[in-house]
Amino acid sequence: MIDLVAKRYVKALMSQRDIDSLSSIYNELNTISTAYNDEKFLLIISSTDVTISKKIDLLLSFNDSCSETTKNLIKLLGDNKRLNIIPTIVKILKQELAILNNTYTGVVYTNVKLSEADMTNMNSAFAKRFDVNLELSQNICDYNGVKVDIEGLGVEIGFSKERLKSQMIEYILKAV
Description:
Helix content: 55-70%
Radius of gyration: 22 Å
Distance between the termini: 51 Å
Order of helices and strands: HHHHHHEHEEEH
Strand order of the largest sheet: 2-1-3-4
Strand content: 15-25%
Number of helices: 8
């Protein structure tokens, strides 16, 4: 539900604006949305004791040089009691900017550190395959294999040792 409401605000923001102004608005809102990671801030925003105008002033104080569009958006969200959807708006706006710029980010999950050459090769191969500008980063975790997740494109490619082993056993059992 929150996504649907946030998409309407993003659609309104995107209408008749160029990529540079959208990027500027995104940066301003992203700065503001970092405050939503703090529990004390969330208590203030969700509190009924604090007036809407004080909440709006608090949000606008996080970024000294907000554009009029950002100020008006935050005031509109405050008037409609929807200040809690700012992080969702930022997330959706980031995805829309990625589509407009044809630039995406991805994460490679492995349990060992890959060399720079391997990361560069994967980056160029996926960028060429999907015809996009791509930036891959590495996340070393307990995943027993390699998994590439490209946010925004909806691509998740994985190779797991456990899955390969189970498929081989299954294949052998079917052959017998």
